Amino acid sequence: MPRKKSGIKALAEIFALIGAVLLIVFGIISLIGISLTLPWIFHGKTAIFSLSIIVNNLILILVGLIIFAGYDVIKISLKMKMEWPVLLVLGIVALIFGGGLGALLILLAAIIELIA
Predict the structure, then answer these.
(1) What angle do CA 93, 31, 63 make, to 5 degrees?
(2) Which candidate, 55, 66, 115, places its Cα nearest to that of 89?
(3) Per-residue DSSP letters for 14-62?
(4) pLDDT, mean of residues 3-21
(5) What is the pTM of this model?
(6) Terminal alpha carbon distance of the chain
(7) Contact yes or no for 53/29 (Cβ under 8 A)
(8) In the chain, count of helices (H) and strands (E)?
(9) Which of 73, 81, 93, 112 has its CB 3.0 to 4.6 Å from that of 12, i.e. a possible disulfide?
(10) What is residue 108's three-state secondary structure?
(11) Measured in whole angstroms, how far is the alpha carbon of residue 54 from the centre of its chain?
């Protein structure tokens, strides 16, 4: 029989999942935008800058997928549970790589998990 979650833990899970959705959507949209403009901007420094944007977006998508797998939304076997230290690290990584609002929601979920 599954254990019921408290209301605060459910709120933290909702924030983390919304943040993960935002990270994945932002990453995919930015990847599509960069891939459409890449043939026209192959000029030295700009191509290297484009490669860094592609890597940043792939990391954001990966962080979103890790959060989904941690909450069993997608079926990938992870040996960790989404507790506040894991959410804090993933939120900081997403913030460093340009996650924006999605990263802030994940950090908010980590703070809520810490308090609860």
Answers:
(1) 25
(2) 66
(3) HHHHHHHHHHHHHHHHHHHHHHHHGGG--STHHHHHHHHHHHHHHHHHH
(4) 89
(5) 0.84
(6) 22
(7) no
(8) 4, 0
(9) 112
(10) helix
(11) 15
Q: With left for phi above 0 and alpha for psi between -120 and 50, is residue 72 left, alpha or beta? A: left
Q: Write down the mean pLDDT value for the chain.
A: 86
pLDDT at 3 over 90: no
Token pair in block for residue 112: 């809520």
| Distance of alpha carbon 60 from alpha carbon 40, whole angstroms | 25
> And the tokens for 99?
């996650």
> For 68-105, how does the pLDDT look when each residue is reduced to its tens digit (9 = 90+)?
999 989 988 878 888 999 999 999 999 999 999 999 99
Eight-state DSSP code of residue 106: H
